[in-house]
Amino acid sequence: MKNKSKPDVPHPLEDLVRMDRIPHIWCSGCGTGSVFASCLTAIKQTGIDYRRFTMVSGIGCSGRGAGYINIDSFHTTHGRAIPFASGIKMANPDLNVIVFSGDGDLCAIGGNHFIHAARRNMDLTVVCINNFTYGMTGGQVAATTPFGAKSATTSAGNPESPFNLPLLAYAAGATYVARWTMLHSRDLADAIKESILRKGFSFIEVLSPCPINYGRRNKEKALDALRKYQKNTIVKNGANPAEADIDFDKGVILGKFIDIDKATCDESYRKMYRPQETADKQLKTG
Amino acid sequence: MKYWRVPLDSNEVQVSRGKVHIIEERCKGCGYCIEYCPREVLEFSKAYNAKGYHPPVVRSEDCLNCHYCELLCPEFAIFSVEAIGEGV
Ligand code: SF4
Ligand code: SF4
Ligand code: SF4
Q1: Distance from CA of A267 to the nearest CA of B (A)
Q2: What is the pLDDT of residues A226-250, one digit of tens each?
Q3: Which single residue of A58, A201, A252, B3 could bond A101 by disulfide (Cβ 3.0 to 4.6 Å)?
Q4: Is residue A98 assigned to a domain?
Q5: How many CB atoms lie within 10 A of CB A45?
Q6: Is pTM beyond 0.90 here?
Q7: Cα–Cα dist A7/A10, whole Å
Q8: Rounded-to-integer distance, Cα A1 and Cα A203, Å
Q9: Segments in chain B below pLDDT 70
Q10: Domain that includes residue A49, residue range
Q11: How many domains does chain A have?
């Protein structure tokens, strides 16, 4: 079969990507691009008008997502994707706000914002790419680096224990908590779609390889990481987030852990402080 | 298509067929699509693209149009479409 010529049809996600910025900066074998493709697929599958979305990213490799998506988006300051996103949601509650960022940005540098947005049940879809390190700055130890793993700043192994992010999200008040890997592209796209369509703080952790700054120091090529995601994981929907600590020797639990119905921050705020607006809306939507 | 056990209704069920498109110059040679295609449709090309990576080439006509390569590729460099009028 000939593949030399360019296909006569465009790639199906091209309408959602700023093609003039492609190739993106993500390294060969970086999983971020795959997570991004799943996220765009989910947006497409909702059937909602693209003008009803906003993507917000913080700083880091995955933080580039906001710059590549061809809808309204904000590339914000380090750790502050969630407060920007919360502001957007409170000002314009009809928008579907997606936060696309990394573990370091969302849960370490922006850790306080993260727990408080979860506590408030702010209506956001938070896609957190966990590559176990600070990739962009050279692979320093992160709050998610597994115990014993090597990094630029823990050359003999990490002496600290990492966060269990699903447990952190749940304990703080998130009403939807799931974990997938970038290899589980379809489950991931379905989870993102489900989160967009539901109300409340949705947290989706996605395990994804950083072969350059994490893999290299831990003798793990991108495809080795993917094999681990395939072989050393167990899908267990409804599992207790307390069991979701990451230990590939024991098996890492994936799935949808939490899905609770609860009034969102913007709904409660409007009901209490803008009662007329709420009544008008109910009249309109029946 | 090879089956380890021929399904009873294999004559009636239409197996979808796909055609896979590769945009060589976007590829960064990670090999995800090659490794995880369920039908082993792809292999590394011997040639390099302009960036110095070996993009995938199609080695068999078994594509199922499952779109998995399309979802997994970090570079928007591969996708499948339904094969129309190419016989099953
Ligand atoms: S440094 Fe790591 S996380 Fe950043 S683009 Fe490269 S592989 Fe991806
Ligand atoms: S669409 Fe599916 S079967 Fe076809 S090449 Fe891609 S992964 Fe393989
Ligand atoms: S998944 Fe994409 S970037 Fe990776 S080898 Fe296949 S076509 Fe190239």
Answers
A1: 35
A2: 999 999 999 999 999 999 999 999 9
A3: A58
A4: yes
A5: 14
A6: yes
A7: 7
A8: 43
A9: 1-3, 85-88
A10: 14-284
A11: 1
